[in-house]
Amino acid sequence: MSVDAAEVVAPEFALSDTEINWGRLDKKRFHIIGAILFTFQSAFIHPTAVVKTRMQVAGSDLCRMSGLSVFRRIIIKDGISGIFRGFGTSAVGSLPGRVLALTSLEMSKDITLKYTADLNIPEATRVGVANGVAGMVSNLISCAYYVPLDVICQRLMVQGLTGSIPCNGPFDVIRKVMKTEGIRGLYRGFGLTAITQSPASALWWGAYGSAQHMIWRGLGYQDSSEKKPSHMEMVTVQATAGMVAGACSSVITTPIDTVKTRLQVIDDYGVGRPSVLKTAKTLVKEDGWMGFYRGFGPRFLNMSIYGTTMIVTYELIKRLSIKKE
């Protein structure tokens, strides 16, 4: 009895069992649990997104301050509510988008794994490719929903800054944007987001899959080995791989994110309707080429924390959503 009890307390899995595919999930439970846990995860990292956004958009006073100084300034001026500007809109608005993104991610990963099963390539490469393809497809599909939501949330985050239009809540943002620019105003930066963030998403998921594989092998685990990881080891490895993927992605994508954020938020450059080229020229004029890395510290922190918390949350959701036999 004592041996059986010990096995129950410390379950172990083969590496091949750590990947839970779409077919093994209870879809209803997956989306309900996902909505709850991802909302808490979003609340945890939202303040870093507010700091990053305000540094990218603001004039010389904020962009030359450290992320911690900007954070303190927001707290002193606006209180706790200031660092959670736009969170309600983001949390509620993200629910349908998250269902779309997670469903397309898991389905496209399953399809890719199925069609690459007979290829003579290493298993780690095949999993990395499948993760990368899934990340890109999911991002492309969800862009149509998330870009307008980003425009609304980011405009709420930067209220009071030079160049932003005063708005009283998300519906006021929608009304004012629609009045001045029509539906295209809500899709500012859509092309830039779709073209650049989809490969970035592929990079993130591919880096995650590769990092996880290298860590497992570095620890001496093999698919066919009798040595099997425990729950704690799985969480630790997945969290580390997520942090590495997030950090790598932030270094590469911050310049694009800075241009996209300013394009979506600032209305008055004095040169007509903003475009990617006008936005980039204004940024270079203000701060030189280093201007593209405005808010890099908070974004690096945001994406590293996001990568860690998101993947741990995501893998936990999948384990809690396995169909009962």
How is the secondary structure organized here?
Elements: H1 2-9, H2 27-57, H3 60-63, H4 67-78, H5 80-83, H6 87-115, H7 123-157, H8 170-181, H9 183-186, H10 190-218, H11 231-265, H12 276-287, H13 296-320
Helix pairs in contact: 2-4, 2-6, 2-13, 6-7, 7-10, 10-11, 11-12, 11-13
- What structural class is derived from the secondary structure elements? mainly alpha
Kindly state the mean pLDDT as a whole number?
A: 80
The succession of helices and strands, N to C, reads: HHHHHHHHHHHHH
Low-confidence stretches: 1-12
Strand composition percent: under 5%
* Count, helices: 13
**Backbone shape:** globular
Strand count: 0
Instruction: Classify the helix fraction into a percent range.
Output: over 70%
Radius of gyration: 21 Å
Q: How is the main sheet built?
A: none
Oligomer: single chain
Alpha carbon gap, first and last residue:
24 Å
Could you describe the 3D structure shown?
- The model is unreliable at about 1-10 (pLDDT under 50).
- This protein has helices at about 1-10, 25-55, 60-65, 65-80, 80-85, 85-115, 125-155, 170-180, 185, 190-220, 230-265, 275-285, 295-320.
- The longest helix is centred in the middle third of the chain and has 35 residues, at about 125-155.
- Helix 11 packs across helix 13 (about 295-320).
- It has 13 helices and no strands.
- By secondary structure, it is mostly helical.
Short description:
The chain is mainly α and 325 residues long. The chain is 74% helix and 0% strand.
